[in-house]
Automatic annotation (TrEMBL), chains A, B:
SUPFAM superfamilies: cAMP-binding domain-like, Winged helix' DNA-binding domain
Keyword set includes DNA-binding: yes
All residue ranges annotated as the Cyclic nucleotide-binding domain in the record: 35-152
Cited InterPro entries: cNMP-bd_dom, cNMP-bd_dom_sf, Env_Response_Regulators, HTH_CRP, RmlC-like_jellyroll, Tscrpt_reg_HTH_Crp-type_CS, WH-like_DNA-bd_sf, WH_DNA-bd_sf
Keywords: DNA-binding, Transcription, Transcription regulation
Top-rank taxon, per record: Bacteria
Protein name, as recorded: Crp/Fnr family transcriptional regulator
Record carries keyword Hydrolase: no
Length: 247, 247
DNA sequence: CGCCGATTTGATATACATCAACCGCAGTGG
DNA sequence: CCACTGCGGTTGATGTATATCAAATCGGCG
């Protein structure tokens, strides 16, 4: 695993103040977006004591497909991918997760996909057994987790339409729009993609060459602009929406 | 909507005894597999009173993609499909649900996909608002729903690998194995598929012709046998597993 | 400035889609 | 009872989007 990342992915969270050490939720940047948001301060502290903060480097894998489900985590900072693959090495990225998202498989024996950091990342990691137990005693937490899982399922099913029925052009257009909704553009309207071309291909179920060709073609057509390896500026969003085609 | 079904899909549930009328859970065939399984008898009765039993004919649609989420339901009997489509009519089936499964979008404003009966079916239908309220007061129910949603998500993500990275041959092999796991074969080892060729194509993200060709080819190779329009016998399961390719 | 992996570009192959008959079974009606 | 009809399914001929293979180019880093 030797990925290199040329852009400052984590600029949004410039080393958050660790006022009360790494164990404290009060200073947590995702506190009110993560699943622990609805817990009382006391309960949140109790949950916090079950887990620990860990740092990941880009390219590191936290969980492997098919492994026993040993841990779950909140993403505090960074971007990670969820992936499955066939026996002969073809990979499909089944999800991309961002700060405040939840990862891992609670209430289940196996992790059904690998989880790998795309950028440097920080997690709030819990042993699964402890987390499950805590969740069973805290309805608010389970409710939040349910909400999030239902949303994930909706988004995943929408992506099935893309994988099964859209052309390469439509796939790339949909991908770019999706990214523009999740990521903030800089002053010049340039979005820094957290994914390499190969990873984009693995998200869309096409090859790297096809991704590249579609993007340069869109650039030729004046719909987008490519800046450096990881940057895109969406020039004609309406055109992208027409291309992405889902009503 | 004029689908016709030549095989007795529902033979497994020969007009269940309605001992205490259609409103009673005690005689419910899915009582201990559905999400209400962990409720006390009293709570189950209370939930039951919020909803009503409805009968669907094959081809009828209960919910439409993008509509306000008004109802949710347990499937008592029958098979239904969940589908989304592009503006120009390409369809992707994002899920197939069976007896004891749960359908609809609780805790959310919109139904993200249509739900249509593939066979005649019976549902235990709840207004969403009432259901949500009841669920909020009953942790066991939410826990069951969470479990089920997590399982759905796992299965859906596994299907993404199929849609994005598998060949037509692999797709059909995977589909047949999946069916053989969910459906019981009759005495001769023949499985009655609940889906037409077009619907199989819409599940796998390929065309009807490709489905047909792959199946007749597998038949030529002695891997499966086709009996009538809806019947398949899996002769060489090992070969199918090799073909389906996921490790 | 030069190097190395990431990306783009080009040439070619191919799996699958598309278009078009055709077949066969299940109703239907004479 | 049998021809007729309609629809789901199969089969064939052909087209094309995308994969594959190969090489050139770029961009960031030492």
């Amino acid at each position: 695993m030797d990925m290199r990342f040329d852009m400052a992915q984590n600029a949004a969270f410039p080393t958050p103040a660790r006022i009360c050490g790494s164990q404290c939720c009060n200073a947590c940047v995702v506190r009110d977006r993560a699943i622990c948001a609805d817990l009382t301060e006391g309960d949140r502290g109790a949950l916090s004591r079950l887990g620990r903060r860990v740092t990941l480097q880009a390219g590191q894998t936290v969980m492997w497909e098919g492994d026993d489900s040993m841990v779950v985590a909140n993403v505090i900072e960074g971007t990670l991918k969820l992936a499955t693959s066939t026996g002969d090495g073809r990979e499909q990225i089944v999800g991309v997760v961002y700060a405040s998202d939840f990862i891992g498989r609670p209430f289940g024996a196996r992790t059904p996909h690998s989880v790998t950091a795309l950028t440097d990342a920080r997690l709030c990691l819990f042993p699964r057994g402890c987390f499950d137990g805590f969740a069973m005693r805290h309805g608010e937490l389970q409710h939040r987790l349910l909400q999030r899982t239902l949303d994930d399922l909706d988004r995943t099913r929408a992506w099935m339409l893309l994988l099964g029925r859209k052309s390469a052009r439509e796939k790339v257009a949909t991908f770019l729009l999706d990214m523009s909704r999740r990521l903030k553009a800089d002053g010049d309207g340039v979005i820094a993609l957290p994914l390499s071309r190969q990873q984009i291909a693995d998200v869309l179920g096409i090859t790297i060459e096809t991704v590249s060709r579609q993007m340069t073609e869109m650039k030729r057509d004046g719909i987008i602009d490519l800046v450096g390896r990881r940057g895109v500026r969406l020039i004609n969003i309406a055109a992208l929406e027409t291309l992405s085609e889902t009503v």
